[in-house]
Amino acid sequence: MTFSITARCARTGMFGVAVSSSSPAVAARCAHARAGVGAVATQNITDPTIGPRGLDLMASGLSAADALEQIKQTSSYIDYRQIAFVDRNGQSITHSGNKALGIFNAIAFDNGAVAGNLLASEAVLQTMADYFQAHSDADLGDRLIGTMQAAMQAGGEAGPVHSAGLILVRDVAWPVADLRVDWHETDPIGELAHLWDRWKPQMDAYITRALNPTEAPSYGVPGDK
Fold first, then answer.
1. 165 with 31: CB under 8 angstroms?
2. In Å, what is the CA distance from 174 to each residue of 5, 30, 36, 45?
3. Whole-structure pTM over 0.85, yes or no?
4. From CA 218, how far away is CA 198, in angstroms rounded?
5. What string of DSSP letters covers 136-203?
6. Nearest to 195 by CA among 153, 164, 174, 173
């Protein structure tokens, strides 16, 4: 019921996760990232605690592989879980328990990993991996959105998707993008792409306002002089 891309930008060190599902509010449960540390997607009969726990382990100095091994050794019902980790060095690793749903798989590669279950076909994930790796010069947010759109063009889930989300972190302590379409009847990934197009040009201004309002651009709202 879910497919995702978990990634690091080798040029900027940014991390991000994009995810979509037939269930509501998927990103609230499944997408996790921390600046300077890594990113985690946890899905399929989701245990949302795996994201923060995995990030804590990588923050302590463990590689993605070692952090995932710790999670597998200390988590209940790991055979039901699907997990993707990417660490600060771009190492990625995945786990798909044998009780994942429908057609499922995961592919790890340098600086990224894709995972999915209840897929239309296994070709969906290869299409996602190919798209992400072929667009290494693009902004990470654009790459993640494009990867999700490529997944849908390749068939996506076996049934309709209804929610989608994107999280990005970089050189500040909070997500620089945390965009969610918690329910849409027909095209949550398209709606997410529209949100990203609206947010991307303003993202740096909001960071400046947080760090030093005296250097921030005008707010551009009625009443602002």
1. yes
2. 20, 17, 11, 27
3. yes
4. 17
5. TTS-HHHHHHHHHHHHHHTT-BSS---EEEEEEE-SSSS-SEEEEE---SS-HHHHHHHHHHHHGGGH
6. 164
| Number of C-beta neighbours around residue 184 at 10 A | 17
* Domain coordinates in residue numbering, the chain: 2-215
- CB 217, CB 224: distance < 8 Å: no
CA–CA distance, 217 with 145 (Å, rounded to integer): 27
Q: Which CATH number does 2-215 carry?
A: 3.60.20.10
Residue matched to tokens 């995945």: 94
Each residue's pLDDT tens digit, 50-87: 999 999 999 999 999 999 999 999 999 999 999 999 99
162-211 pLDDT tens trace: 999 999 999 999 999 999 999 999 999 999 999 999 999 999 999 999 99
Closest Cα partner for 29 from 15, 46, 44? 46
| Per-residue DSSP letter, 9 | -
Neighbour count for residue 35 (Cβ, 10 Å): 18
Name the 3-class secondary structure at 67.
Answer: helix
